[in-house]
Description:
This protein has one domain: CATH 3.30.1330.40. The protein has 2 helices and 6 strands, in the order E-E-E-H-E-H-E-E. Strand 4, helix 2 and strand 5 form a beta-alpha-beta unit. The longest helix is centred in the middle third of the chain and has 18 residues. The mean pLDDT is about 95.
Amino acid sequence: MELKAFNTDKAPAAIGPYSQAMTAGEMVFVSGQLGMNPETGEMVGEDLMSQTGQALENLKNIIIDAGLTLNEVASVDVFLTDMTDFGDFNAVYHRYFSGHKPARAVVAVKALPKGGCVEIKCVAFRKSP
């Protein structure tokens, strides 16, 4: 199985030594996405809901450009700087994953890059034709 780096200009460029995603056969591993505007590289706001929406848009754009859909996401890992934001996070997340509900973990972390309050990564699996 060949590993290949995958990047798109429809999501923020990596801010460190990593790829936006890696493909391994039929699997796509998407790196953690912050609430950053792809064009400016800046956070879209200071609040959790705007950052969550942008992080999910970034993740969705990577998945789509890799030739998949959000319905092919198998698991999602979420990092929040404040677990009291869990309900607000779920309200935004539900707009992206309402019918299809991937496996998910949400953990609290002390801090995130660029002062973000949420980071989201996922693994997707390309369905057979």
